[in-house]
Write a structure and sequence with these properties.
The complex is a heterodimer of chains A (about 190) and B (about 170). Chain A has seven helices and no strands. Chain A is mainly alpha-helical. Chain A is elongated and about 70 Å long. Chain B has about 170 residues and is an all-alpha fold. Chain B contains seven helices and no strands. In chain B, helix 3 crosses helix 4 and helix 6 packs antiparallel against helix 7. Classes of the chains: A mainly alpha (about 190), B mainly alpha (about 170). Chain B: InterPro entries: LOB. Chain B: It comes from Arabidopsis thaliana (Mouse-ear cress).
């Protein structure tokens, strides 16, 4: 991997895009390989190379890969949807959470109803061994698009973020699953 | 009115021009969305996206879409400032995990509902006298109403689906 940043090898996607020499200490080289030119093109268009350089320099080295992948995801979302970016995906997911919570509440109401109904029947010959297994979520009614609350909710899953290449982030595109509008792959 | 006030210098510059230390022109792209009394709003957007990038992105959009674009960029910039590693992707991941948990719980609850309905219907033929059961209609000893019960359950579920939830995306 270190050899990929040498001057006699091909430059990284960033230096190729910016038409400059890829130095051994290039901060982009580990995360923007030359075979993924679109990844950097999107990040550069939305965030700007100097902004990304500043952002990466402020992070610890072991955090930069996740940061680049999340920036690439957001940049691609912004390129696809210049108005809403990845906030459109967040809004879609929030509506999903809201809908599922309502369905769960209705199912729990059904369970309560049948529990009372069975006990009201007073059938002496039967052993009523009802176990109410469902556990409703703690009362986390999600306020719509509140950055502070949204991010505090995000922190428990910080360690569980997938650490693959940009390709693995394709699984995080909600409209690939829920929306039929988008064609799909990059 | 705006012209005269701007030319006279009575109007203060928008938050963007104030931060960038430049003159706020009459046709400033930022001024409708970054008022002077919200300096942090533009500061975060400038830090994450860069003023020239935001300017370019707004210029490429029709005017009636720029407000939403600014709101979403403000949201993303705030998320990135608070979490420089994951930004909005952290929120997306959290929501996806919540969906997984809710779907699992819903599947359990629905399976339990079906189980209780089947048990209730199969218990009735064994007893000739069941006048107390409120959910039974007619003579239970001669009925096998499982399919109808299933229909009832699903038709009940259909009521829960809301096609038009509130479209208010911005609550900043």
């Amino acid at each position: 991997m270190a050899s990929s940043s040498n001057s006699y090898n091909s430059p990284c996607a960033a230096c190729k895009f910016l038409r400059r020499k890829c130095m051994p200490g290039c901060i982009f080289a580990p995360y923007f390989p030359p075979e993924e030119p679109h990844k950097f093109a999107n990040v550069h268009k939305i965030f700007g190379a100097s902004n990304v350089t500043k952002l990466l320099n402020e992070l610890l080295p072991h955090q930069r890969e996740d940061a680049v992948n999340s920036l690439a995801y957001e940049a691609e979302a912004r390129v696809r949807d210049p108005v809403y970016g990845c906030v459109g995906a967040i809004s879609y997911l929030q509506r999903q959470v809201h809908r599922l919570q309502k369905e769960l509440d209705a199912a729990n109401a059904d369970l309560a109803h049948y529990g009372l109904s069975t006990s009201a029947a007073g059938a002496p010959g039967n052993v009523v061994d009802l176990v109410f297994q469902p556990q409703p979520l703690p009362s986390q009614q999600l306020p719509p698009l509140n950055p502070v609350y949204r991010l505090s909710g995000a922190s428990p899953v910080m360690n569980q973020m997938p650490r693959g290449t940009g390709g693995s982030y394709g699984t995080f595109l909600p409209w690939n699953n829920g929306h039929d509008q988008q064609g799909g792959n990059m | 009115m705006k012209e005269s006030s701007r030319k006279q210098g009575a109007a203060s510059p928008c938050a963007a021009c104030k931060l960038l230390r430049r003159r706020c022109a009459q046709d400033c792209v930022f001024s409708p969305y970054f008022p002077a009394d919200e300096p942090q709003k533009f500061a975060n957007v400038h830090r994450v996206f860069g003023a020239s990038n935001v300017n370019k992105m707004l210029q490429e959009l029709p005017i009636h879409q720029r407000g939403d674009a600014v709101s979403s960029m403000v949201y993303e910039a705030n998320a990135r400032v608070r979490d420089p590693v994951y930004g909005c992707v952290g929120a997306i991941s959290s929501l996806q995990q919540q969906i997984d948990v809710l779907q699992a719980q819903l599947a359990l609850a629905q399976a339990e509902v079906v189980h209780l309905r089947v048990r209730q219907s199969t218990n009735f033929p064994g007893h000739g006298l069941c006048p107390d059961s409120p959910s039974s209609s007619g003579s239970p000893s001669s009925k096998q109403v499982s399919p109808q019960d299933n229909k009832g359950m699903f038709s009940h579920m259909d009521i829960v689906d809301e096609a038009s939830l509130g479209e208010s995306m911005w609550s900043c």
